[in-house]
């Protein structure tokens, strides 16, 4: 690979070794810095159902993810890492319940997540890339699957598989798909979950298009959408611009060329 075509992941690693020291802010600035590093909880001004998670690590990794030079191996790693960072914020209001435990020194009262285990529902196939990162953060999470693909001519979703854990009424579901483009697959997946009895649903994607967010708002206004970025628009073929290409092909190395 020519120097100008060096992998962005490799560039990141090379640059990391160039720093000699960190310059920490003075104590008077720590509160402001900490506030700037927290995730925003406000909805997008144009879409009340959408929260775009702005964080330096997410934005950095998303830029690497978009780069066409990023290899399949690095693309998988980045999708997993971004999903984990997003899940940290998306789950910040999970209900807790008290629990008594024994430390090596004494008994204490702690807290644990209440209710049935959280369920991750990737939309096959690209959504599978987001499962591992979130599962590392929440190892007890259950995993269901919804099989949908987008017909490239009609741009409509075609379903072929549906399997989720029992106890739908009492579970919280995180629907996972790297892309929210036309919104067809997302709305169909949420509709299938609701039909099965699910009531608490959130949708996580890495990159969203306004068209897809608007369609979700119209079809499922009660389902919050979390994205790492809201991009400009869809092109004539239904791909997000600037986007990151076909997430499934880039995850599994099935693209042409």
Written description of the protein model:
- The chain is an alpha/beta fold and 257 residues long.
- It has a single domain (47-96, 116-246), classed as Rossmann fold, CATH 3.40.50.
- The protein has 8 helices and 13 strands.
- The protein has helices spanning 8-16, 27-36, 56-66, 72-90, 131-137, 184-196, 210-219, 247-252, and strands spanning 50-52, 96-102, 107-113, 119-124, 142-143, 145-150, 157-163, 172-176, 179-180, 200-208, 225-230, 233-234, 240-241.
- Strands 1, 4, 5, 6, 7, 8, 9, 10 and 11 form a 9-stranded mixed sheet that branches. Strands 2-3 form a two-stranded antiparallel ribbon. The chain has a two-stranded antiparallel sheet with strand order 12-13.
- Helix 3 (56-66) packs antiparallel against helix 4 and helix 4 crosses helix 5.
- The longest helix has 19 residues, at 72-90.
- It is globular and about 65 Å long.
What is the number of strand segments? 13
Individual helix count: 8
Low-confidence stretches are 9-40
The CATH architecture would be 3-Layer(aba) Sandwich
Number of domains: 1
User: Could you estimate the helical fraction of the residues in percent?
Assistant: 25-40%
Q: What's the overall geometry? A: globular
Question: What is the first-to-last residue Cα distance?
Answer: 16 Å
Output the CATH class name: Alpha Beta
The biggest beta sheet, please? 9 strands, mixed
CATH topology: Rossmann fold
Strand content: 15-25%
Oligomerization category of the chains in this entry: single chain
Secondary structural class: alpha/beta
Look at the structure and give the mean pLDDT. 83
Q: Nearest-angstrom radius of gyration?
A: 20 Å
Order of helices and strands: HHEHHEEEHEEEEEHEHEEEH
């Amino acid at each position: 690979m020519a120097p100008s075509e060096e992998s962005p992941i490799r560039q990141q690693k090379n640059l990391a070794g160039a720093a000699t020291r960190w310059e920490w802010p003075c104590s008077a600035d720590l509160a402001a810095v900490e506030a700037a590093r927290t995730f925003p909880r406000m909805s997008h001004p144009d879409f009340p159902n959408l929260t775009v998670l702005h964080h330096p690590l997410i934005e950095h990794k998303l830029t690497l993810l978009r780069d066409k030079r990023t290899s399949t191996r690095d693309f998988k790693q980045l999708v997993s890492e971004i999903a984990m960072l997003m899940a940290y914020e998306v789950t910040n209001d999970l209900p807790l319940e008290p629990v008594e435990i024994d430390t090596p020194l004494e008994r204490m009262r702690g807290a644990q997540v209440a209710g049935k285990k959280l369920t991750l529902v990737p939309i096959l196939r690209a959504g599978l890339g987001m499962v591992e990162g979130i599962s590392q953060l929440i190892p007890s999470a259950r995993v269901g699957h919804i099989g949908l693909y987008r017909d490239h001519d009609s741009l409509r979703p075609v379903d072929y598989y549906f399997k989720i854990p029992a106890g739908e009424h009492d579970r919280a579901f995180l629907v996972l798909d790297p892309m929210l483009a036309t919104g067809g697959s997302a709305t169909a997946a949420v509709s299938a979950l609701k039909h099965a009895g699910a009531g608490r649903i959130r949708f996580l994607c890495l990159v969203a298009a306004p068209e897809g967010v608007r369609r979700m708002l119209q079809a499922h206004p009660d389902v919050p959408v979390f994205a790492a970025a809201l991009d400009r628009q869809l092109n004539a073929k239904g791909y997000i611009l600037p986007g990151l290409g076909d997430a499934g092909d880039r995850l599994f190395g099935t693209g042409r060329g």
